[in-house]
Q: What sequence folds into this?
């Protein structure tokens, strides 16, 4: 089957799972994002399975990441005291201490890579979960009729618009290389196509979707997310190139792995959340 067709089918199913869980219920979304997070952590840790210097235990990395996510989510849902957040640092320190018994050549490097995986993957997924929780529980004004789009859903639409149209525009008219040393296939034409479409989608969300946010918020969000998504994609490309691999995994046909699909999200989420926090004061 043509790669574009496979990519389109996988992308459509992926979008349905993400948006469906966000629109349905915050608890379902929490489970879905938690599952993606664990799969992403497993992928991240397994990337180093054949590395000559870095020797990390993928089961340990995934387990610690899941424990941290569960602690944070239980605190968010008030199932445990907010003070439980203080357990996260001891959990990370215990993970680091396991290097005392593993007897590997580069224990500090091993610990650093696993901590980086938690910061790179667990933190963004928790921020998504927190935003979605807030959307479902702390919006005082809800539409009495019509369609309500949670902010986190709008954020994903902006990221996907940038990714999809950068890819399509690059395939159609891409000529000028954007960052050939890191990602030979990316072009300036594709990048600009993605940026333009992201701004257009931001305009449509702000104009026609009920999100409890203004048009100015969504235009600003589009202007922030477009470069963040591009840089997140480039960062993961740099990461894979340094490890001499093409895709982070193969779980998503036509897209690669979980990290390949969420690379733009990891960088966009913190900036989008900061923008959502700052905008009411502007």
A:
């Amino acid at each position: 089957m043509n790669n574009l067709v496979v990519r389109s089918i996988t992308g459509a199913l992926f979008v349905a799972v993400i948006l469906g869980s966000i629109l349905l219920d915050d608890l379902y979304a929490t489970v879905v994002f938690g599952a993606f997070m664990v799969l992403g952590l497993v992928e991240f840790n397994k990337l180093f399975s054949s590395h000559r210097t870095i020797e990390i235990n993928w089961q340990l990395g995934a387990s610690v990441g899941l424990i941290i996510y569960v602690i944070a989510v239980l605190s968010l849902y008030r199932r445990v005291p907010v003070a439980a957040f203080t357990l996260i640092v001891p959990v990370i320190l215990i993970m680091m201490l396991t290097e005392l018994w593993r007897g590997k050549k580069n224990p500090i490097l091993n610990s650093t890579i696993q901590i980086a995986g938690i910061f790179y993957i667990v933190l963004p997924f928790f921020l998504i979960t927190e935003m979605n929780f807030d959307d479902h529980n702390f919006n005082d004004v809800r539409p009495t009729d019509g369609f309500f789009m949670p902010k986190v859903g709008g954020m994903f639409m902006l990221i996907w618009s940038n990714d999809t149209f950068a890819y399509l525009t690059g395939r159609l008219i891409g000529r000028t290389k954007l960052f050939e040393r890191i990602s030979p296939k990316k072009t300036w034409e594709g990048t600009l196509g993605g940026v333009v479409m992201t701004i257009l989608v931001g305009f449509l969300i702000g104009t026609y979707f009920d999100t409890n946010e203004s048009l100015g918020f969504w235009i600003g969000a589009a202007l922030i997310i477009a470069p963040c998504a591009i840089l997140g994609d480039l960062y993961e490309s740099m990461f894979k190139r340094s490890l001499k691999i093409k895709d982070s995994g193969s779980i998503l046909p036509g897209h690669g792995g979980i990290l390949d699909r969420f690379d733009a999200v990891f960088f966009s989420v913190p900036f989008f959340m900061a923008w959502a926090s700052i905008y009411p004061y502007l």
